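In response to the reviewer comment on reproducibility (Comment 2.3), we provide here a single inverse folding case reported in full, input and output, so that an independent group could reproduce the run without further information from us. The structure tokens appear first.
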């Protein structure tokens, strides 16, 4: 792919649709006043040519969507065109549009040369583009060692009036790019096969520029090194959806083999390498074989991308975390129970869930590794003592975030701080926290939100169409008492969440081994009887 390609102009002409306009000559003043012109171009840093982007054996494809605005936006127009349709390096869309407020979404990427349209859609190669508000990777492994996966986006609101409208919009990359290179020429020449494994965001929203928190594995299996040798010692490259700031890669595991299929080294680039949209990080180090500098990796940056320097050092790869793993007080985990370590929980989910990010937690973390359920629940107690009815008013308390944030907020709220001894089940939770220490690479124990509580209990019990996770259930059953979520095996009992709304607490009900997650919100306090009572099963988040 040519490096100096950074110009793309897309002009959109939008005419009002009216029966009289079809009878007027295009050159009339009335027709001209009904046009809207929108010009878009790619970033132009280092530009040396005004040609459209190119990639061997691929055509540039541009998609335009026009959406109405308001509470219930509707798709008003969608079309796709190739660079083959370009005139003067501009791809133009023409269509009718009534006056009003709109938002356009643009996405430009590459499709295989010769791809035909089916129902107005060119066959996707790298990304599923059927919904520009949810662009997803078709196969994360396809983004290794190619620039044909490059893509660009733009989104902007505009108003269509009776007058001529003309404005510019700029397409930007949704990616960061990483290039990893060997520093030693001799070691590079020994390397015949490179294997890479890490997890990357699955999707991207063109409308708001947000990156999906759902991760998917991106694996390169025993491929030849990207570089040609001599001074070109690149091992591999990769494009990854990235935010404009404050984003980072998870751990990248590396394995190298020689021509006889003998492993030269297994190592890892640790989590925390900063990735910023439109930035290329070039990491160079003694990776294929150890060196006297302990494998320190120097970082440089491609001049055609913006950059910001940082240092990284490879480490031994960590064991992949899986649902059903046992989690220990030293921050490690294993698939089988290690009796020589102190087990404090069982992993019930891996990677970020429910839209969470590592930045939601205190500390300098790059990724969420997974979520751990504690091995015991608190005693069954009132959330708030019944005598506080009329004294504590929960009317305006809304805790609708994730469990970690909810837990912090309830303990910081003046309703708790003024009457802390009147929250029996929270007192029991605090006692549990003090007695069950956690490692530094975790959030610490917190009360799950209702979404997290449902995910956790459904993984063990299953409910309706949601089957239980056998590996998780087996691991929990292997530890005495861990499967006693509530203190009764015959009578219905509540497990409490940290989600509060309308003076009520969100709960789930367990009756023996029967789970019910569709419970009504339970009143925290009642005038003539005790408020909601139940137990808390703490969880924590593992971070890297």
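Designed residues, in position order:
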């Amino acid at each position: 792919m040519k490096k100096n390609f950074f110009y793309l102009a897309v002009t959109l002409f939008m005419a009002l649709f009216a029966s009289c306009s079809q009878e007027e000559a295009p050159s009339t003043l009335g027709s001209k006043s009904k046009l809207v012109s929108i010009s878009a171009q790619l970033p132009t840093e280092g530009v040396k040519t005004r040609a459209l982007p190119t990639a061997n054996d691929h055509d540039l494809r541009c998609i335009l969507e026009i959406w109405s605005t308001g509470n219930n936006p509707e798709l008003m127009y969608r079309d796709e065109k190739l660079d083959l349709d370009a005139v003067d390096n501009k791809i133009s869309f023409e269509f009718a549009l009534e006056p009003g407020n709109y938002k356009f979404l643009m996405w430009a990427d590459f499709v295989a040369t010769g791809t035909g349209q089916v129902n107005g859609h060119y066959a996707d190669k790298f990304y599923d583009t059927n919904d520009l508000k949810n662009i997803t990777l078709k196969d994360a492994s396809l983004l290794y060692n190619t620039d044909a996966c490059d893509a660009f986006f733009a989104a902007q609101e505009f108003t269509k009036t009776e007058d001529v409208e003309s404005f510019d919009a700029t397409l930007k990359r949704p990616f960061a790019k990483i290039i990893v290179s060997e520093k030693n020429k001799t070691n590079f020449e020994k390397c015949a096969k490179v294997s890479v494994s890490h997890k990357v965001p699955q999707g991207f929203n063109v409308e708001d520029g947000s990156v999906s928190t759902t991760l998917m594995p991106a694996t390169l299996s025993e491929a030849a090194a990207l570089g040609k040798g001599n001074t070109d010692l690149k091992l591999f490259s990769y494009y990854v959806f990235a935010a404009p700031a404050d984003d980072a890669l998870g751990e990248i595991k590396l394995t190298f083999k020689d021509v006889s299929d003998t492993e030269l080294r297994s190592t890892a680039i640790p989590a925390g390498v900063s990735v910023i949209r439109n930035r290329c990080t070039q990491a160079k180090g003694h990776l294929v074989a150890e060196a006297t500098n302990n494998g320190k990796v120097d970082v440089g940056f491609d001049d055609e991308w913006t950059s910001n320097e940082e240092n990284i050092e490879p480490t031994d790869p960590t064991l992949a975390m899986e649902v059903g793993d046992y989690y220990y007080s030293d921050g490690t985990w294993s698939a089988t129970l290690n009796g020589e370590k102190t087990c404090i929980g069982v992993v019930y989910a891996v990677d970020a869930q429910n839209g969470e990010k590592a930045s939601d937690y205190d500390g300098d973390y790059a990724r969420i590794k997974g979520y751990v359920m504690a091995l015991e629940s608190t005693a069954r107690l009132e959330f708030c003592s019944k005598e506080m009815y009329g004294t504590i008013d929960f009317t305006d308390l809304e805790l609708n975030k994730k469990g970690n944030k909810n837990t912090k907020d309830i303990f910081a709220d003046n309703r708790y701080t003024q009457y802390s001894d009147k929250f029996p089940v929270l007192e029991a939770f605090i006692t549990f926290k003090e007695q069950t220490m956690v490692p530094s690479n975790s959030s610490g124990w917190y009360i799950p939100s209702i979404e997290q509580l449902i995910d956790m209990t459904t993984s063990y019990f299953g409910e309706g169409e949601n089957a239980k996770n056998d590996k998780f259930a087996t691991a929990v059953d292997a530890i005495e008492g861990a499967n006693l979520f509530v203190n009764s095996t015959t009578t219905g009992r509540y497990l409490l969440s940290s989600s509060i709304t309308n003076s009520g607490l969100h709960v789930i009900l367990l009756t023996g081994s029967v789970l019910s997650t569709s419970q009504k919100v339970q009143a925290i306090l009642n005038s003539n009887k005790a408020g909601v009572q139940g137990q808390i099963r703490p969880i924590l988040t593992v971070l890297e």
